[in-house]
């Protein structure tokens, strides 16, 4: 009986307050490999693939946004820090011991010039992206200039995201207060670039001095579905801002050298005859599929794509699709005599003749192969039908 009780309780520990706790909470996370982390860093590190592997999702997101820490600068600098990242992810005893010493030595995380600079850069990036996404001109009779007051929010969000990487953390509202307090400087400095930079600097200073603290508990181990949802949502918002920038403020140059806003060009495209024809063709295809099935659509699509080169081969030989094998052979022999490179005396035209001769040969081979395959298939079908029709007495 005693042994059975011990077996039931071997996964439980008693805390100081007398409550029974599950020891699985204190179990080590799945161990990560330094070698694999370096492989992912080398082949996908500029997009934060190694950070996703190490469950550093914020870090991975920022690497996506900045192409490896501003075009690979941060990515290259990680060549010496990856072993430390792996020990952190594995909750390695040596890392924990070093972290405890830091907690005992420093009441709050010490100043890091690299992290502080990255906070300013990401805050500036997010703020500038939000600024670019706002329509510069009236759109649908609406003035969207009031959205400029969202810029401090994105600046603060960028600063806060960098500040919460790894074993450091801080609250968002400190950054928000600092960013919104600094942003009105735009009424004195009319260059939005300097305004966003000053706003980002103010938010980073306040976070570094007032908000930053140690993350004393191990990071929460989240499931793959939750991580994917949060990461994909963040990426969707980020690329949506880029999409707004291109749609509202992007331009394309027409054949006359005039710049046309992309949103106007897109609306003109939707009203064009070409798009109307495509839309009608898609509707007709859907109606046809409802009656004949999608397999028939797929067959017609393959035929229109000319994947076997049959249509082009007929075109090269100058024949119709109903031509027989005899006609194909006769036309091929006639063309070989008239376009053979040896019959061309002009050296400048011999290369063109050689290319044309090769095209004719290839076209003949394609059609002969297709015709032979169809003949074999038809013979097989006829033989099968004859066997099925045979009456055994």
Overview of this protein structure:
The protein has helices at residues 2-8, 34-44, 49-53, 57-71, 73-77, 82-90, 93-105, 113-133, 151-163, 172-182, 192-211, 224-249, 262-270, 273-292, 294-305, 310-317, 325-339, 347-389; strands at residues 12-14, 20-22, 168-169, 213-214, 251-253, 259-261. By secondary structure, it is mainly alpha-helical. A two-stranded antiparallel ribbon has the order 1-2. A two-stranded antiparallel sheet has the order 3-4. Helix 14 (273-292) packs across helix 15 (294-305) and helix 16 (310-317) packs across helix 18 (347-389).
How many domains would you count in the coordinates? 2
Tally of alpha and pi helices? 18
Please tell me what the overall shape is: elongated
Residue share in β-strands: under 5%
Instruction: Specify Rg, calculated over alpha carbons.
Output: 34 Å
Q: Average pLDDT value?
A: 86
The main sheet orders its strands as: 1-2
Domain J: 312-383
Main location: membrane
Keywords: Membrane, Transmembrane, Transmembrane helix
Membrane topology: Multi-pass membrane protein
SSE map:
Blueprint: H1 2-8, E1 12-14, E2 20-22, H2 34-44, H3 49-53, H4 57-71, H5 73-77, H6 82-90, H7 93-105, H8 113-133, H9 151-163, E3 168-169, H10 172-182, H11 192-211, E4 213-214, H12 224-249, E5 251-253, E6 259-261, H13 262-270, H14 273-292, H15 294-305, H16 310-317, H17 325-339, H18 347-389
Antiparallel strand pairs: 1-2, 3-4, 5-6
Transmembrane segments: 35-54, 60-77, 116-134, 146-163, 194-210, 231-248
Domain J: 312-383
Membrane topology: Multi-pass membrane protein
């Amino acid at each position: 009986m005693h042994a059975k009780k011990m077996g039931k309780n071997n996964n439980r520990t008693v805390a100081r307050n007398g409550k029974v706790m599950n020891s699985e909470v204190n179990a080590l996370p799945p161990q990560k490999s330094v070698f694999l982390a370096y492989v992912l860093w080398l082949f996908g590190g500029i997009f934060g693939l190694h950070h996703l592997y190490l469950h550093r999702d914020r870090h991975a997101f920022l690497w996506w946004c900045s192409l490896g820490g501003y075009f690979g600068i941060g990515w290259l600098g990680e060549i010496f820090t990856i072993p430390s990242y792996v020990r952190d992810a594995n909750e390695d005893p040596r890392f924990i011991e070093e972290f405890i010493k830091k907690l005992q030595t420093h009441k709050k995380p010490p100043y890091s010039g690299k992290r502080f600079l990255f906070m300013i850069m990401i805050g500036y990036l997010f703020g500038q992206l939000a600024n670019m996404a706002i329509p510069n001109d009236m759109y649908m009779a609406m003035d969207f200039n009031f959205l400029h007051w969202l810029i401090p929010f994105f600046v603060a969000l960028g600063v806060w995201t960098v500040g919460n990487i790894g074993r450091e953390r801080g609250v968002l509202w400190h950054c928000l207060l600092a960013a919104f307090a600094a942003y009105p400087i735009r009424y004195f400095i009319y260059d939005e670039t300097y305004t966003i930079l000053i706003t980002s600097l103010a938010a980073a200073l306040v976070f570094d001095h007032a908000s930053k603290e140690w993350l004393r508990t191990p990071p929460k181990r989240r499931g793959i579905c939750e991580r994917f949802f949060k990461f994909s949502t963040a990426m969707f918002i980020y690329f949506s801002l880029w999409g707004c920038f291109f749609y509202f403020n992007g331009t394309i140059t027409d054949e006359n050298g005039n710049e046309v806003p992309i949103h106007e060009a897109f609306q003109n495209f939707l009203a064009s005859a070409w798009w109307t024809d495509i839309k009608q063709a898609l509707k007709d295809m859907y109606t046809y599929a409802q009656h004949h099935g999608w397999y028939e659509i797929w067959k017609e699509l393959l035929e229109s794509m000319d994947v076997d080169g049959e249509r082009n081969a007929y075109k090269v030989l100058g024949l119709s699709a109903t031509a027989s094998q005899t006609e194909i052979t006769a036309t091929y022999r006639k063309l070989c005599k008239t376009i053979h490179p040896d019959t061309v005396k002009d050296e400048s035209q011999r290369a063109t003749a050689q290319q044309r001769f090769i095209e004719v040969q290839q076209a003949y081979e394609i059609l002969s192969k297709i015709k032979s395959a169809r003949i074999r298939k038809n013979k097989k079908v006829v033989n099968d039908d004859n066997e099925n029709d045979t009456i055994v007495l």
